[in-house]
Amino acid sequence: MNSRGFRYALLFALALTEVLPIALLSQALPVLLRRSGATMQQIGFLFLAMLPWSLKALWAPLIDRLGARSTFGRYRGWLLFSHPLILITLVAGSFFDVPGLLLHHRAYALAALLWLTTVCALADAASHGLAVSLLSADERGLGNGMQTAGLMAGQLVGGGLMVILVGRLGWQPALLITSALLLLPLPGIALYKERPVDPSRVITPREVLALFRRPRMGRWLLVVAAMPIGASLMTPALEVMLVDRGLSLKEIGLAMGILSSIAGAAGGILGGLAVKRLGRERAFYALSVLCSLCLGLVLLNRVAVERPFLYFVISVPVVGVMARATMMHVLMMDRSRLHVASTDFTIQYTVQHVSRLLWASAGAFIAGHFGATSVFVLAPVLTLAAMGLASWLLDRADFEPSLSLDEGGPAPALEAAPASPLKNVS
């Protein structure tokens, strides 16, 4: 039951089900609250519940440390514990008017949502570790592609589709239907045989922090922080632009929720295939250029009079962004030591996540002072600039999968990819 196809399917299902509740909280609930007459200040409190999800790097060492003692497997044990809890929490939530509770009994609702995001964060951190350990070096391209596709599918269901179902069926049937998807990975988790670990090896804080002392890690984390600059800078202005263009809430949901999720899933698969066919180094530069070109398409929004063309202009950039994100996640896995895989990967992911928030804040500030077009112009240019910075900081050795270490030594390395024709692009 540990075939390659089984492992890819398991990663897809895990990503879908772990991000579904987060999309419900961050995308669907704000829409439902606004429809119920909530103010922006009331909706803003909702995002406090996202704090545990943003602080996954704090939970990951706990996952690695305690999971090593589990008889069910280091990461499998956590997944067997957390996924049923997520399912039970969502089913229980279907019996309450959660949007109403958020309006009239905010403290109770916020506590319940904090519980939900904490369990989701634990599950996601465990999934990161499981993915690093179950994918060999040459499987990480498509494996991460499947994870990205699952993530985007979870956003589609928990965000856009949930809003549609609530409008047609009501809160309880809609949440019960979407909660049923939480059953998808449970058979796979139960059947997967995780390789045993040495329970006598104690994971200390010193060992966790050793990630930062690894050769060239500082350079790599700088690249991780810089690469999202273009796409993140654009995001706030893009959302405001849709409102300014007069799109209805339903049309915005279709564009940003459904079509963008489908485009992102396609981008994830494209990124995985690129890594497999081109090798890590050439895929890094090729997908960075593709991302810049896709972001540049947003400038066509000024001539996008018809809705279908406008939807195209908004969705295609997501293909490039998620293709590049998939490639970045492969390189993060390569730098993750197998005995602390959840910690190493999640720390890198958190650096990326925090940088996205900072770049998005900067983008909102720039757009507010100079207009949305300014960030639409800057986004593709700065994406190429970030690639140029990466080409200066990194060399061929940084793209070799042998960087991933287990308890006994380096993971098997692939044959080195030929030198990238884009290596010196800046």
Automatic annotation (TrEMBL):
Organism: Sorangium cellulosum
Key word Transport present: yes
One function term, GO molecular function aspect: transmembrane transporter activity
Domain of life of the native organism: Bacteria
UniProt xrefs under Pfam families: MFS_1
Any one of the GO CC terms: membrane
Membrane topology (UniProt): Multi-pass membrane protein
Protein name: MFS transporter
Alphabetized Gene3D superfamilies for the sequence: MFS general substrate transporter like domains
TM region positions: 44-63, 75-96, 108-137, 149-167, 173-192, 220-242, 254-275, 284-303, 309-332, 353-370
Keywords assigned by UniProt, alphabetized: Membrane, Transmembrane, Transmembrane helix, Transport
Compartments in which it is found: Membrane
UniProt keyword Transmembrane helix present: yes
